[in-house]
Design goal:
By secondary structure, the chain is α/β, with parallel strands linked by helices. The chain is 34% helix and 23% strand. The strands form 6 sheets. Strands 1-8-7-6-5-3-4 form a 7-stranded parallel β-sheet, sandwiched between helices. The protein has a 5-stranded mixed barrel with strand order 18-19-20-22-21. Strands 10-13-14 form a 3-stranded parallel β-sheet, sandwiched between helices. The radius of gyration is 23 Å and the shape is globular. The termini are far apart. The protein binds 5'-deoxyadenosine and iron/sulfur cluster (SF4). The site of iron/sulfur cluster has 10 residues, from helix 8.
Amino acid sequence: MANVIIHHCPSLKLARERKTTITDYSLIKISKFLSCYAKNKRYFIYTHGCQANYRDSEIYKGIFEEIGFKPSNDISRANLILINTCAVRENAENKVFGEIGNLKYLKNKKDVTLVLAGCMAMEEVMVNELIKTFKHVDIILGTHDIAKFPDLLEEHLKTNKRVVEVNSGSGYIHERLPSVRDSSFKAFVNITYGCDKFCTYCIVPYTRGRERSRNPKDIINECRELVKQGYLEITLLGQNVDSYGKDLKKQYSFAKLLDEIAKLKIHRLSFLTSHPYDFSLDIIKVMKKHKNIQPYLHLPLQSGDDKVLKIMGRKYDSKKYLSIIKFARKEMPNLFISTDIIVGFPNESDVQFKNTLKMVKVAQYDGAFTFIYSKRSGTPAAKMVDKISNQTKVKRFKELTRLLNQIIEKNNQKYLNKTFEVLVDSVSKNNPKALTGRMHNNKMINFNGDKKYVGRLVKVKVTSTHIHYLIGEMVK
Ligand code: 5AD
Ligand code: SF4
C-alpha cells in the first residue's frame, strides 16, 4: 500500500452516530496549480443510482468547471473521469465493477485521473476491495467529502499516489458549492441529506449518513432563484422528506416547507420520497391547496405483511399505510400513487408474500418499482439466515410484477382520448422523431414532435397506452 495515501476509511460504526447538524457556508478555493493543470482538459461523469446521486454529480460538474475542466460527451477525450456509484443493490455495484474494468485501457493510453465517488465508497468491505483490486483508480472519495475534491486531486497529481478520503460520520451540510445543472427547465433541490430510519435491509443510512435538514431559508432561496432563471419544475429531494426539519433548532415541518415553496409560483412542484411512518395528512391538504403541486405521491410499501414490516424496521403496519392511501384518494381522486416493494426479504413466507399481493390490490397503484431483496453487508438483515430459495423469490417477483402490470394497465385506460399538459423532457433514445415527456401527474408519455419542443409545455392527446408510459399526439 506504499502507493496509497489513506486519509480516512469508511466506518459503519461511525456512520450510525448522531451528530448535530452544522451548515458550512464557506466557498471552495482553487489553487493556481490546479487551474493551470486543468487548462484544455476535459471531464466525463458516469452517474448511477437515485436522484440524490444525480444532484451530487451536478455539484461535481460545478467543482470541475470551477477548477477549469471542460465537459466532454466523449469519454476517450477526457482527462478526468468520475464514477458516481450506487450501493443500494448488488446489481448496481456489479455494473460499476464492469465500468472500472473497461477504463483500464484508457488509463494505459493517456493522462487520465480516475475517481470513484458515491455510495460504494462508503462501504467498509468495498473500499478495501477497490484499493486491492483496482489499482488504476486514483482517488476514492465519500459522499461527505465532495468539497475536498480539489485538494485531493492536487495531492494525487503532486505525489503521483492514489488517495482515499472517506469520512463516515458527518453532521455537515455544505451550502454554496458550485453546481452545473443537467437541465435548464427541471431541477432537483435537496431538502434533507441522509436517513435516520435504518430499515434493516438498507445500506443508505450508512452511505449517506444520519439525516440532516437544510435550513428552510437556504432551500427557499435556491427555489426562488430557479424560478427567476425560468425553471418550470422543481423536485424536492430527501430519503424521507416527511421527517424534514426534525433536527433543526427551530422545528419546521415538511408540509410548511412545501406550502412556502408552492407560493413561489414554480410551474410544477413535486417531492421524493415519502415514508408512511412520518407522513402527515397535512401534506395532502397542502397538495390540494396548490394547483402547481403535482398530484403525485411516491409512498414505498416495501411489504404488505405486518410481521415482515416489523422485521424490516419500517415502523408502520398495513393499517396505517392504507389509512394514508384512503385519505389521499378521498381528498385527491386524481392522485397518481406509486410505490417501492421488496420481494424475498429473508424468510418471507408464502402467506406473507400473499399479504403483499393483497395490499397491492387494495392500493391500486398507478406505478411501482419492484426489487428482489439484495443482501447488503453491514446491515442487520444481512446477518439473518435465509431459508427461501432464489428460485422462489424470482417466481414471486414475476407474480407481483404481473399483478402490478394488470392494475397499472387498467388505471391507464382513464387517460385514453383525453388531452393533458406535458413538459417535454427529451428526444426519444430509440426514435429521433419521437419526444418523451411527463404529464401533470408525472406519468410518462411519448409522442411524435420536433426537438424544438424539448423544455417546453405542450398539449398531448392520449391515443394508446403501454404499462410504463402512454402514447399520444400533440394538439395545436
Ligand atoms: N434490496 C432490495 N431493494 C432494496 N431497496 C433498498 N434496499 C434494498 C435491498 N437491500 C429498495 C427499497 C427502496 C428503494 C429505493 O430500493 O424498496 O425504497
Ligand atoms: Fe433506506 Fe429505509 Fe432510509 Fe428509505 S427510509 S433510505 S429504505 S433506511
